[in-house]
Write a structure and sequence with these properties.
Layout: H1 8-15, H2 19-31, E1 40-44, E2 58-66, E3 71-78, E4 89-93, H3 102-108, E5 112-115, E6 126-129, E7 139-143, E8 153-154, E9 161-163, H4 164-181, E10 190-195, H5 198-214, E11 223-229, H6 235-240, H7 242-248, H8 254-264, H9 274-284, H10 325-336, H11 346-355, H12 358-364, E12 378-380, H13 387-395, E13 399-405, H14 413-421, E14 427-436, E15 439-447, E16 452-457, H15 464-467, H16 469-480
Parallel strand pairs: 4-7, 4-10, 9-12, 10-11, 11-13, 13-16
Antiparallel strand pairs: 1-2, 2-3, 3-7, 3-8, 5-6, 14-15, 15-16
Helix pairs in contact: 2-4, 4-5, 5-13, 8-9
């Protein structure tokens, strides 16, 4: 583990503002029984819809993380296609909170994807291998967290309740139990990764692992760093970045932006006066966020401002999900017939059809009904900002990469860059383009002796790997090997 050489007393002093969170971690650790049900994995060699045996090694299973409330987290483990014994171990967390990790597996960084362009509504959804999978160079555990996401479940009402801190603690228990059952990966370099609301969980879990290691909990986890894509981080920075982003992208007029800037004084997330509130309302009236709009509109798709909102798309053009006109109508009809907002996206429609097929569920080793994002979970958002957590991790010497899709209007690159600047880190390598196949793939800057790398992904939305999988794989491969982008 990479850490500073400060004294024990100074280390405890740095932790005192987070003492309630630390006490919560320790109280749950004290009642956790490491002799409880270990990770019972099922080897999956084929999947319905995939032609032939899988060209990668896949394991699925449950890990019980709380005996009292009977909480079980479901996981998908993909072995590295390169050298599983030596390649890093990446834990990947999907956002929401409440979204299934199969989104990462099938839509972002995993080894397969759905093909929508031929689907006629009668045949079984087709899967193909994704060559841009991050499992080419790393082992990846995709975890359904918090409880209620994907196939994870609890047998008690108390167990079904969750929060940021509870989710982190359950993940810490999950990871220790999983590694006890897979001891061959204990020495692999460990990285925690995720996107969207994972921006809250990833740095918090990384800090919890560091503190647990410091306290001597077993097994020791070989933690090296973390990855955060399009990350939710702090409501002030996240929200305040949206108005300048929309203006810079030409989506609101100079006059409207100027009035908002003057009346709100750059603080758009908390309107301080009636004129500011009026300006923000005028801007919001022109924009519809996909997370709140249930009907097709002619407004802006905030997940990717260049893509239509009324289509089986707001999906990536690069995702092999471009459909014929008939397919487009089919997806819209499917979406209209279902209350799940996510069904506007063709590949998400196919995923729901696929994951709720009895043959698929039996193949994956479970029988629970699946929903891509379960927003009905009983979840309490108690961590409102992780900026200080990032700063603490930088001081401890952990490596990190934070990246943004530069066309993401939900968590904008402007807001993300602003909270990174607020940490006052020294710049190691200033703003410059980074390249894939001779073309500019985005722009990057590194801080704190190259411990923190920030990158934009050109042309990507929310989340970046969905829209630019080739570029994101190159970015990850360079960073994980210790090279600059």
């Amino acid at each position: 583990m990479v850490s500073t050489s400060s004294s024990s007393s100074s280390r405890r002093w740095r932790w005192w503002p987070w003492l309630p969170l630390t006490c919560f971690f320790l109280s749950l650790l004290s009642v956790a029984s490491w002799k409880a049900v270990a990770a019972a994995g099922t080897t999956v060699t084929s999947l319905p819809g995939f032609d032939g045996p899988l060209p990668f090694s896949l394991e699925t299973g449950y890990v019980e993380v709380n005996e009292t409330t009977v909480v079980n987290l479901f996981y998908y483990f993909v072995y590295s296609e390169n050298d599983p014994d030596q390649d890093p171990l990446l834990v990947w967390l999907t956002g929401g909170p409440g979204c299934s990790s199969i989104s990462g597996l099938a839509h972002e960084i995993g080894p397969f994807q759905f093909v929508a362009e031929w689907y006629n509504g009668r045949e079984f959804p087709k899967l193909i291998y994704r060559p841009e999978t991050w499992s080419k160079i790393s082992n990846i555990i995709f975890v359904d967290s918090p409880v209620g996401a994907g196939f994870s479940y609890a047998d008690t009402e108390e167990g079904s309740k969750s929060s940021d801190t509870k989710a982190v603690q359950e993940l810490l228990i999950f990871l220790r139990k999983w590694l006890l059952d897979h001891p061959q990966f204990l020495q692999n370099r460990l990285y925690i990764g995720g996107d969207s609301y994972g921006g809250i969980i990833v740095p918090t879990l990384t800090l919890a692992i560091d503190e647990s290691n410091y306290l001597g909990e077993k097994p020791h986890l070989n933690l090296k760093g973390y990855i955060a894509g399009n990350p939710v981080t702090d409501p002030q920075f996240d929200e305040d970045g949206k108005i300048p982003f929309l203006h810079g992208m030409g989506l609101i007029s100079d006059e409207l932006y100027k009035h908002a800037k003057e009346t709100c004084r750059g603080k758009y997330s908390a309107t301080s006066n009636a004129q500011c509130a009026h300006s923000i309302q005028a801007i919001n009236d022109k924009i519809t966020d996909i997370s709140t709009s249930k009907q097709c509109t002619k407004d802006i798709n905030m997940a990717h401002i260049l893509e239509p909102i009324c289509q089986e798309i707001y999906s990536p053009m690069s995702h092999n999900t471009v459909a014929r006109d008939g397919m487009s109508r089919l997806m819209l009809e499917s979406a209209a017939a279902d209350d799940d907002d996510d069904l506007n996206k063709a590949s998400y429609v196919l995923l729901k059809i696929w994951a709720n097929d009895e043959t698929v569920r039996a193949n994956l080793g479970n029988s629970w009904e699946w929903k891509r994002c379960n927003y009905d979970i009983n979840y309490n958002k108690v961590i409102h900002s992780t900026v200080e957590y990032h700063l603490m991790l930088m001081r401890k010497g952990y490596r990190s990469i934070i990246y943004s899709g530069d066309h993401d209007g939900t968590i904008t690159f402007i807001g993300t860059q602003e909270w990174i600047r607020s940490m006052n880190l020294s710049i190691a390598d200033d703003w410059r383009p980074w390249y894939v196949a001779g073309q500019v793939a985005g722009f990057t800057r590194s801080y704190a002796s190259n411990n923190l790398t920030y990158a934009t992904v050109k042309g990507a939305g929310h989340t970046a790997a969905e829209y630019k999988p080739k570029q994101c794989l190159k970015m990850f491969a360079r960073w994980i090997s210790g090279n600059s982008l």
